[in-house]
Amino acid sequence: MTEEGSERENGGLGSMDSMESRWVYQDEEGSEIDNEGDDQRGVGGNESPQRDSEDEDNAEQRLIRTGPRIDSFDVEALEVPGAHRSDFEDISLGRRIILAFQTLGVVFGDVGTSPLYTFSVMFSKAPVNENEDVLGALSLVLYTLILISLIKYVLIVLWANDDGEGGTFALYSLICRHAKVSLLPNQLPSDARISSFRLKVPSAELERSLKIKERLEASLTLKRLLLMLVLAGTSMVIADGVVTPAMSVISAVGGLKVGVSIKQDHVVMISVAFLIILFSVQKYGTSKVGIVVGPALFIWFCSLGGIGIYNLVKYDTSVLRAFNPIHIYYFFKRNSTKAWYSLGGCLLCATGSEAMFADLCYFSVRSVQLTFVLIVLPCLLLGYLGQAAYLMENHADTTQAFFSSVPSGAFWPVFLIANVAALIASRAMTTATFSCVKQSTALGCFPRLKIIHTSRKFMGQIYIPVMNWFLLALTLILVCNISSIYEIGNAYGIAELGVMMMTTILVTLVMILIWQINIIIVLSFATIFLGLELTFFSSILWSVGDGSWIILVFAVVIFLIMYIWNYGSKLKYETEVKQKMSMDVLRKLGPELGTVRAPGIGLLYNELAKGVPAIFGHFLTTLPAVHSMIIFVCIKYVPVSVVPQSERFLFRRVCAKSYHIFRCVARYGYKDVRKENHQTFEQLLIESLEKFIRREAQERSLESDGDEDSDSEEEHAVSRILIAPNGSVYSLGIPLLTEFKDTSKFISEASTSEEKPGPSIDQITVDAEQSLEKELSFLRKAKESGVVYLLGHGDIRARKESWFIKKLVINYFYAFLRKNCRRGTANLSVPHSHLIQVGMTYMV
């Protein structure tokens, strides 16, 4: 689905609401683990699952052996250029200049507007009594900006990206790729063979890294703690997306008080109007808006630098002494507790640093680093130096330090560009929020929402309508109830510091497990930056009663939503694993599955990594007939940002050849684009299945030539599954055809040659070719009869004997989220008459 000619909706060929978070228990070899042992039975009887497990282990071995030769197919990425970081390579000089402007407009708006309010919030806690107070506060700001924004984020954290993707979930995905620390147990050996996996070559620090890795993998408590840290960091990013627009716009519009006499109520009304306009243009995308606001923000940074130089020359160049950190010591010595309170305001100079990392998916690391070092940082330093020079002679103007320091002749132009910059800053954090929501959704930690891709060139540029209006509503509530920039500043600091601390912990793990650098460097990074951030955090928490508690409550609510969604989806998948249909049941039912096989292809979307889903048994008992060919389609998100097109899909055969049942496993990265086009999907699906059948025949022919006593047909026909889905699915189809007669004859024609013995190798070859042509003919006839999508909607309910908390979480909170998240049929591009849906409820 497209909007404005270039936007595309995420969710692929029909994202099912039942395909949220998927897990599969595995042992070290990737085999599925059934926690219930011999007590678990498949649908339909008391068959032991032991035989199924052994068959699936054999299937795993066979897939590892034949995997590289299996044909794959892809639909969506064929039309999406720029699936890799090469988007930013080999581009023209003109394109690089445009990219630089977009980087300014998208990434640096938040940190660029911090001079509007930093000194005002600081001096509200520690009033200026003498010039040394100004020098001490300036020194604090300069070194906070240098240590956190420059050294930590620009020079270190940006390199901890996951193939160009930034943010807390990108770090978590990167860690999960190198250690089995995810509570989503869907990692398998085959994942490591994806070319974009790119594990690090062992270094001298490997032994220490392995010890820590083993400790993390062995401790369920540490795994849960790591996930909770990631969820907490993401919830703070989303909370930051609420408070950033409020702070930026209120502080910019508040500059009117310097130029004209205006009431605070009028400032709030103008701010509300600006915010509505801001969120309304968000849908036009980063590329469209970035190219417009990029030059505007460039003018803003030039204005900061120019005003700073003017004030330095006019008032007092002695503020350059603030580069000596001894003035920080003097500041705390004179003001003690008040200086400690002012740390919360000082941190505001580094707000937007996390947005630089979260928005990294839009641009390359080098472009962000160079733009910051060559343009952003010098202008910010000059801006703060100029304000301090002005305040050295005007101690009473601290309430509007920036606008008071602007020369009178340039006030209105600067006021105009400052408001434009404030709107841009709000967009920077909003786009970062969109990126984090998309990542968390793909990894099964956030309810599925409609995601629109706003750029044909850069697949990371997205827009989430529901999230956009949700952020607007909360921002308006915050602005209307807390109009003081001092109180909003406290809330701003809490949200920023929460994300910063989570990032510090995760990057420390990346240094140990992935970079494998010297432990002294790792400890130095963790000690310096975590200690610095905890100091700032202690100052802000002391003022939490000033109104900033609202943002904490909002962050807690977002955290609970994410945790409940993750917990409920995990529980649902575990239950489906336990209740999977036994392979022995299918064997006893025979090729016709105990029902009528009507000509046609049925695409059954399921969530199991291995085995036959219980919902298939429900289809067999509910429908009067099933299709002559069944394909189980599984979707799996792997811990990489992008899965190459040629490695996305795998086919395997389920049961004996005469059953005509296949499994298709689709592997996606959390950044992959999935475009809806069911007609293209149908065509490529059938073509790819034909290639798989031909390749399978070639493999069997080679094996027969090498060893006439090779595996039996039944051993070859066992379920070849190894990937569990963790996301949404596709859908298309037409109504089930039940009017066909003689279906048994239709099916048997394709399998008559399977058991024909041949007196010689030549005869065996001829029979094999005939069998291949008959199966391909069977496939074409089934295709002509139509493709139908079988959608199974599984719900969970807590058992009566469950704890009250579990009943509350599963039966009400999780059920509410599932009911109101994006439903699968909303993503389908086919008529409802082409779908067959069956519901099933599991008691957990």
UniProtKB/TrEMBL annotation:
Coiled coil: none annotated. Keywords: Ion transport, Membrane, Potassium, Potassium transport, Transmembrane, Transmembrane helix, Transport. Residues 99-585 form the K+ potassium transporter integral membrane domain. It is found in: Cell membrane; Membrane. Residues 1-10 have a biased composition (Basic and acidic residues). GO terms for cellular component: plant-type vacuole; plasma membrane; vacuolar membrane. InterPro entries: K+_transporter (IPR003855), K_trans_C (IPR053952), K_trans_N (IPR053951). Residues 1-65 are annotated as: Disordered. The chain crosses the membrane at residues 97-117, 137-160, 225-246, 266-282, 289-313, 339-358, 370-390, 410-429, 466-486, 492-514, 521-542, 548-565. Pfam families: K_trans (PF02705), K_trans_C (PF22776). The keyword Plastid does not apply. Residues 26-37 have a biased composition (Acidic residues). The keyword Zinc-finger does not apply. It is a multi-pass membrane protein. Belongs to the HAK/KUP transporter (TC 2.A.72.3) family. PANTHER family: OSMOTIC STRESS POTASSIUM TRANSPORTER (PTHR30540), POTASSIUM TRANSPORTER 7 (PTHR30540:SF8). This is Potassium transporter.
